């Protein structure tokens, strides 16, 4: 199905659907959390789409930045999104708040590479919450935007913490997350 976009594999018809689900040549969906944007396109067009359709996303340069999520006490499900540019690549930083059940909220922080799964394997990210003689750190390989935020959360491949922990590190309802990207 994706031969026109560069896939050169020839498979038996029974193997085809499984491959198409993970094929690096399938169109990329908009990586922004939430289902409101239905955009799809090539990997090369993702950044252009984000800059034009999602102008509110801030991009910071450098491998060591602070991702500031403001008003973490907002009710309901909320997403904070930011871009980090370093090592010639763009990374999407996402903090997502979900209400698991009435009165119990959880936060999920993840870094995605605007790139392929193979490219993502070349990097490691570290998320760190600091405050009041406490430190919470998560270190992992970023996921490709092909996988998306929901897959990372579903597989628990992200920094997850509840509201009580968030408040230990928050300052006036704002949560600063130190984000460091390195090559491996």
Automatic annotation (TrEMBL):
Q: What are the protein's GO molecular function terms?
A: ligase activity; ubiquitin conjugating enzyme binding; ubiquitin protein ligase activity; zinc ion binding
Task: Give the pathway annotation.
Answer: Protein modification; protein ubiquitination
**Which key words tag this protein in UniProt?**
Ligase, Metal-binding, Transferase, Ubl conjugation pathway, Zinc, Zinc-finger
**Record's GO cellular component, any one?**
cytoplasm
Q: Its domain of life?
A: Eukaryota
Q: What class of enzyme is it?
A: transferase
Q: Write out the GO biological process terms.
A: cell differentiation; proteasome-mediated ubiquitin-dependent protein catabolic process; protein ubiquitination
Domain (SIAH-type): residue spans on this chain: 1-55
What residue ranges are annotated as transmembrane? none
**Database matches in PROSITE patterns:** ZF_SIAH (PS51081)
Q: Does the keyword Metal-binding apply?
A: yes
Name the SUPFAM superfamilies for this protein: TRAF domain-like
Q: InterPro entries, from UniProt?
A: 7-in-absentia-prot_TRAF-dom (IPR018121), SINA-like_animal (IPR004162), TRAF-like (IPR008974), Znf_SIAH (IPR013010)
> Which reaction is recorded as catalysed by this protein?
S-ubiquitinyl-[E2 ubiquitin-conjugating enzyme]-L-cysteine + [acceptor protein]-L-lysine = [E2 ubiquitin-conjugating enzyme]-L-cysteine + N(6)-ubiquitinyl-[acceptor protein]-L-lysine
Q: What is its EC number?
A: 2.3.2.27
What this protein is reported to do is described as: E3 ubiquitin-protein ligase that mediates ubiquitination and subsequent proteasomal degradation of target proteins. E3 ubiquitin ligases accept ubiquitin from an E2 ubiquitin-conjugating enzyme in the form of a thioester and then directly transfers the ubiquitin to targeted substrates.
Family designation: Belongs to the SINA (Seven in absentia) family.
Q: What is known of its domains?
A: The SBD domain (substrate-binding domain) mediates the interaction with substrate proteins. It is related to the TRAF family. The RING-type zinc finger domain is essential for ubiquitin ligase activity.
Q: What is this protein called?
A: E3 ubiquitin-protein ligase
Gene source species: Urocolius indicus (Red-faced mousebird)
């Amino acid at each position: 199905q994706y031969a026109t976009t560069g896939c050169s594999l020839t498979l038996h018809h029974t193997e085809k659907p499984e491959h198409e689900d993970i094929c690096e040549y399938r169109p990329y969906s908009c990586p922004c959390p939430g289902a409101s944007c239905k955009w799809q396109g090539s990997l090369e067009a993702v950044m252009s789409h984000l800059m034009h359709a999602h102008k509110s996303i801030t991009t910071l340069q450098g491998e060591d930045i602070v991702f500031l999520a403001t008003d973490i006490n907002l009710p309901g499900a909320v997403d904070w999104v930011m871009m980090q540019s370093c090592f010639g690549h763009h990374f999407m930083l996402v903090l997502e708040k979900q209400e698991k059940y009435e009165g119990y909220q959880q936060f999920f922080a993840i870094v995605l590479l605007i790139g392929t799964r193979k490219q993502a394997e070349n990097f490691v990210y570290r998320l760190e919450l600091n405050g009041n003689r406490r430190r919470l750190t998560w270190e992992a390989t970023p996921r490709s935007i092909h996988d998306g935020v929901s897959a990372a959360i579903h597989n628990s491949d992200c920094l997850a913490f509840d509201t009580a922990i968030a408040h230990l590190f928050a300052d006036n309802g704002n949560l600063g997350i130190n984000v460091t990207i390195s090559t491996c």
